[in-house]
Design brief:
The chain is of the alpha+beta class. It is built from eleven helices and twelve strands. A hairpin with a 3-residue loop joins strand 8 and strand 9. Helix 5 runs antiparallel to helix 11, helix 6 runs antiparallel to helix 7 and helix 6 packs parallel to helix 8. The radius of gyration is 24 Å and the shape is globular.
Length: 387
């Protein structure tokens, strides 16, 4: 008489959760992960563009044709259509396939690892991982993480901490909220201190855009083809300056051609220099330039990462944020070394810090806590031992 079925212990097939066998729940979470992954693709495409993630229904971005359900099945439809729109033939990014597969994988892995003893913790972690996936792919493409994900994630994490205090290893809602709040403060505070110290001590990373590019400066930030960069991520010291040689400069009431442009907003009063002419930046309601190169002072980490770490702390607590900060530095360094070895060092500069924080946090959930406990010994290990 064997004690295994399909390679798994018989006991694995026996438990029920909320009245249904565990394997049935597992299959359901695979399906849920695929559905959520399909929705995350909509979020990744629309949220940075300021579009609604609810309406209109799914449609081809190229031809605008509404996509019927039979062509909108996660993974299956992409493979069936060979990565192209059924109506106009436009290529569909492999990212759609990857997001759906990754979401399903993380959902079912989380369910298998946590659901037997803590099913509600598994639900909370799946919500967190969905946010990680959306944030990661948006950050990879646009170098931003929208507030809807960061600040919204912090609020959702705080609420989960009240209803599922086991998320933090706590026994009461009050203790769960306490650990969640501490996670927000410690996580956001750590990244904020690193951000400010780096700006003061080492200056800022320069982002260079090559090729004829239209750049618009408006009330809150600089709009590049890759997305908007907030002014708060650019101007910190009075010496911080945006410099470019512009083929064309457009102000509200006049234009210039082939001029050197400098913009300093941290200086008082804010200054705009076009060629030899010095203007008040506050007096110009509109500024757009066409340039083939722009030096944009920008830190590798921005305030979006501060808010992102606050969301991580709200869900996972303060120890996880410490682990994520140091773990992300190791991961980022490893990626940079790999890119250098492959002769693609410029690629590493196109990756925001958010994906590294997300990966380090996932590692924490699936074993990083135990590693930290063993590594740092009984003193710090006791603190790291709380989720």
């Amino acid at each position: 008489m064997t004690d295994r079925l399909l390679g798994l212990p018989i006991d694995w097939w026996m438990p029920t959760i909320w009245g249904l066998p565990f394997p049935i729940w597992t299959l359901a979470w695979v399906a849920l992960g695929l559905i959520v992954g399909s929705f995350l693709n909509v979020v990744i495409h629309r949220l940075p563009r300021g579009e609604s993630v609810v309406a209109p229904p799914s449609h081809c971005p190229k031809c605008g044709t509404r996509i019927p359900l039979k062509y909108n099945l996660p993974i299956v439809s992409w493979l069936w259509l060979r990565g192209r729109c059924r109506f106009c033939g436009e290529a569909i990014s492999p990212r759609y396939l990857g997001v759906e597969a990754l979401t399903a994988f993380l959902f079912v892995l989380t369910w298998i690892v946590f659901a037997r003893e803590q099913p509600l913790v598994a639900v909370a972690l799946c919500v967190l991982f969905a946010g990680f996936i959306a944030a990661t792919f948006i950050d990879l493409e646009y170098l931003i993480i929208p507030d809807e994900i960061t600040l919204g994630g912090a609020v959702v994490g705080f609420l989960f901490s009240a209803f599922v205090p086991e998320l933090h290893g706590a026994n009461s809602a009050a203790e769960g909220l306490k650990r969640s709040g501490l996670g927000v403060v410690v996580g956001a505070g750590l990244v904020y201190c690193v951000l400010r110290a780096g700006k003061l001590a080492f200056g800022r990373q320069r982002v260079t855009v090559n090729g004829a590019t239209r750049v618009v400066f408006h009330e809150t930030g600089v709009v590049l083809p890759s997305g908007e960069v907030p002014y708060e991520d650019i101007f910190y010291r009075t010496s911080d300056t945006v410099r470019m040689t512009a083929q064309q400069v457009e102000l509200a009431d006049r234009c210039y051609a082939n001029q050197r442009v400098e913009l300093q907003l941290a200086e008082q009063p804010p200054r705009l220099r076009i060629g030899e002419e010095v203007l008040s930046a506050e007096a110009e309601p509109y500024l757009a330039v066409v340039t083939d190169q722009i030096d944009l002072p920008r830190e590798a980490m921005g305030l979006g990462d501060v808010k992102f770490m606050a969301a991580i702390g709200a869900f996972l607590g303060a120890p996880a944020t410490v682990f994520a900060l140091f773990g992300s530095a190791v991961i980022g360094s490893a990626v940079a070394l790999l890119m250098i070895a492959l002769g693609r060092q410029k690629w590493s500069g196109r990756v925001g810090y958010g994906p590294y924080l997300a990966v380090a946090s996932v590692i924490w959930v699936f074993g990083g806590k135990q590693w930290a406990t063993a590594w740092f010994g009984p003193v710090l290990g006791h603190w790291f031992g709380g989720r």
